[in-house]
Design goal:
Number of domains: 1
Distance between the termini: 20 Å
Helix content: 25-40%
Mean pLDDT: 86
Structural class: alpha+beta
CATH topology: Alpha-Beta Plaits
Largest sheet: 4 strands, antiparallel
CATH architecture: 2-Layer Sandwich
Shape: globular
CATH class: Alpha Beta
Order of helices and strands: EHEEHEH
Strand order of the largest sheet: 2-3-1-4
Length: 96
């Protein structure tokens, strides 16, 4: 089952920041500076965390994953906002 995560990061070095951004882009939708919306299985989340582990400096940087429940669930449709409205992703499974 895919869960929705809001992932945020605070990376102190510009080179590490670019590497983290590139990795995150492969796993989620870039919403704002250092914020991604990710639909991940447990395996994908573990894989992503393993890829990030060697790229950050653990005493300076931080990456957080906030689980929001099942992808497309109630918590995503109940987002509060000020300004431009939040539009949940409407993509489903891709069959090739």
């Amino acid at each position: 089952m895919r869960l929705l995560y809001i992932a945020t990061y605070d990376i102190c070095d510009p080179k590490r920041l670019r590497r983290v951004f590139t990795i995150m882009r492969g796993y989620g939708e870039h919403l704002q500076f250092s914020v991604f919306r990710c639909e991940l299985t447990d395996r994908e989340r573990s894989e992503l965390m393993a890829k990030l582990h060697p790229e950050i400096k653990h005493d300076e940087d931080q990456v957080l994953f906030f689980p929001m429940g099942p992808a497309g669930g109630f918590k995503e449709s109940g987002v509060f906002y000020v300004g431009r409205s939040y539009q949940p992703s409407s993509h489903g499974a891709i069959v090739i």
